[in-house]
Structures are given as C-alpha cells and as structure tokens.
Amino acid sequence: DQQVKQNSPSLSVQEGRISILNCDYTNSMFDYFLWYKKYPAEGPTFLISISSIKDKNEDGRFTVFLNKSAKHLSLHIVPSQPGDSAVYFCAASLPNSGSEKLVFGKGTKLTVNP
Amino acid sequence: GAVVSQHPSWVICKSGTSVKIECRSLDFQATTMFWYRQFPKQSLMLMATSNEGSKATYEQGVEKDKFLINHASLTLSTLTVTSAHPEDSSFYICSAPGRIYNSPLHFGNGTRLTVT
Fold this sequence. Notes:
heterodimer; A: mainly beta; six-stranded mixed beta sheet; five-stranded antiparallel beta sheet; B: mainly beta; seven-stranded mixed beta sheet; four-stranded antiparallel beta sheet
C-alpha cells in the first residue's frame, strides 16, 4: 500500500517557467513532509520541508504548499533552471519520528530544458 | 560537502557470495543509521534501523539473516548482503539523522549492487 504517491513519473518544463511537482498521501497521521532531490548515482539531498501546522513554506526559488484536507502537497520551483533537472522525492513522517523514519514516494523526474 | 560517506558506490558479485557495504558519518556521531533499498522506478524503502551497540531493527518483510547490519561505532554502520542472489540487485542507500531533532536525514551516495 503506497502511503505517499507521486503520480507523475516525469515532468518537463522550459527554463524560466514554473515547475510544479505534486504529492498525495493517504495517512492523515503524517505530520511532517519533506522534499528531496536526487541526481543519478548520488544519494538524495534535502530540499525543503513543511510541518503539518503550516500550509506554506518558502525557501528561495522553492515553495512547498500543504493542503491537509486534500492530503496533498506540492513543490513549486520558480524560475526553473536546467540544474534543477533531477528526480524529486516527496517524503512524510509520523509524529514523534521526526525526519528519521520517512515514507517516500516513487519520485518524479524533472527535466528543465534550456 | 558530504556528511555521510558510503562505500563502495557500485559492486558486481556472483550469486552466492556476500557483499559488505559501509556507511560512515563524517564529522559527527550517529547512534542511529538507516538503510534503504530502491528498486528501479520504485520509492526508497526502509529496510532497517541500525543502532550503535545493539541489534538492528528490521522492517517487516526484510530478512535479518540475509541483510546483516553491524553498527560497531558511532561513525560506522555496515550492511552485509549474505549469499546474494540476482533478485538482491538493487540500489542500497544509508542515511543518518541530523544533529537536531527533525533536521533532515543525510544520505550517502548509495551503492549499486548487481548480482550475476
């Protein structure tokens, strides 16, 4: 049972435009959400996170939105750059587990075309 | 720079042999480390939690006798895939928690295991 779902395996956008990566979850007990970015042959690197008490968190070009009622979160990248091309994983954790025991989605491969 | 070092980055072995993967925390101590496995086009799946000085905690469905975990020091955890079979071919990644609660996990670069 996939508790964290990234239904789009891939996304392609033009440089300078907005990239929107989506993530849905089924477990309403999740209270902390993270986005990781992964380049080929490397481990994931942390990008941005959001607690369930918030609905938006922004860090430079990256913004994560959380809609708890819809059990949906999204990552917005604007403007998109070719260096953003990578696989993006959405992850969630339960209360009291912090960022340690994470449940990951399958990832979305983002390609930003020059 | 990298805070978690994983070695080797790739390994090819014959069926029936054992392979050891090392995960080191650099410049910090990690009493807990996590081992994940990723099959192609699948998500990262937590296999086990490595605990320094005590037994590892395995997730449901993970064979502890096949995937031996040793966390002998505060900076080193090892995963040994014993009697490897082709179906064990996968991408194995270790991670360690950040220093502060709820700080993100730091991941190693992963090990691509191919069993022939």
